Amino acid sequence: MTNTLFEQAKPLLEQLEDHGYQAYYVGGCVRDYLMDRTIHDIDITTSATPDEVETLFDKTIPVGKEHGTINVVYHGENYEITTFRAEAEYTDHRRPSEVYFVRELYEDVKRRDFTMNALAMDTDYQLHDYFNGREDIHHKLIRTVGEAQERFDEDALRILRGLRFQAQLGFDIEQATYTAMEENCSSLEYLSVERVVVELRKLLSGDETPRGYRNMVDMQAFDYLPYFKSYDMNKMQVVEPLSFTTFLAILNVQQPLEMPLAHLKISNDEKKEVTKLVAMIQALPTITTKKQLRTYIYDYGSKEAKMWFQLQKSLSSNDIATASPLIFNMQTIEEIAQQLPIRQRNELAVTGKDLMSHTGLKGGKWVKYALRALELAVVNEQVINQQKALLEWMDQHVEIQ
Ligand code: ATP
Ligand code: MG
């Protein structure tokens, strides 16, 4: 059966073939096609060298030219065309000391990590399957190309890739592959934290995340990863897919070690998100009335509140206290979210300046305090959001010192 994405990329392969080169679809796109999964991007492998690829296409970007990859822009889409490549020995458990370009497909697929990822397919949808990848896909098995021990020793990232493919695809890990993964875990410490985090994000968001995560814990992989090695990951249960920030937040509520998130080199936005999520989890058990839920939703947002409602299994399996379902349930959250008179402070009908000119006092901590009291009063419908009413309410209820 043809596939639109392959058909769209076909003229690129034909262009290479018309000039005497071999060209194939390769890697994840072929695997996903055989599994009837959504294909994300088409990768092309060819016997043409990067220089030769550049001469054959109008719009090219030399993204990873020294490693053999040229990006070709075609009908507005970006395609990675990579020259058949073999690798010299690995000396640091994470990258080959040298790569060189070759003219045989076999050499190229031999260096790839798993049999399911070492499949190439031509424009007639004929598979070039040197390592029984199709059979392994059929049996739902993750198996290294070649000797497992050697392949994980070369590049420890493959251990995490194996686990995240398990989490995404729900495959079993073939026995020798699993044993070699376990035995090479200590090499994970050579990897850059950025590459580790990329794989972890994917592992945590798979349909079969609990399985991949359990195996990762069982092989004690976290002991060799920055940041996580400080935690007892055996205690941290993952029972459903989680975003990376949610995962970190649950972990830190369960084990409040205050390890700097900077060790993970994530963005400042994500760091802030984790801090917010930690506060949200910690505040859950304090919600015992509708009024408290209203404040909670105002402070953190209804989307986030709903998220924690849906993730209650993740909280309880990690022995984290949550809110009573009598108050904290989808219907009440929804209801409150729709009724909130204001959604954020700047919707308040007074500003700090208004408070200062009304009282004739200079700015200070009291302004922040008064604004907070006012916004809560509005949220809880004790006063309407109108300037005169707010100032009167402040005079009566807010003690200013
Ligand atoms: P995804 O669907 O997540 O993109 P993928 O299999 O396409 O999965 P990529 O990281 O995009 O994974 O890599 C493309 C291909 O490159 C893989 O299918 C595999 O053949 C090869 N590959 C990637 N990383 C490695 C590695 N560390 N060692 C050996 N081969 C690798
Ligand atoms: Mg890919």
TrEMBL record:
GO biological process entries: RNA repair; tRNA 3'-terminal CCA addition
Signal peptide boundaries: none
Binding site for Mg(2+): D41, D43
Keyword Metal-binding tagged: yes
Superkingdom assignment: Bacteria
Domain Poly A polymerase head stretches: 23-143
Note: A single active site specifically recognizes both ATP and CTP and is responsible for their addition.
Record function comment: Catalyzes the addition and repair of the essential 3'-terminal CCA sequence in tRNAs without using a nucleic acid template. Adds these three nucleotides in the order of C, C, and A to the tRNA nucleotide-73, using CTP and ATP as substrates and producing inorganic pyrophosphate. tRNA 3'-terminal CCA addition is required both for tRNA processing and repair. Also involved in tRNA surveillance by mediating tandem CCA addition to generate a CCACCA at the 3' terminus of unstable tRNAs. While stable tRNAs receive only 3'-terminal CCA, unstable tRNAs are marked with CCACCA and rapidly degraded.
Protein name: CCA-adding enzyme
Chain's gene name: cca
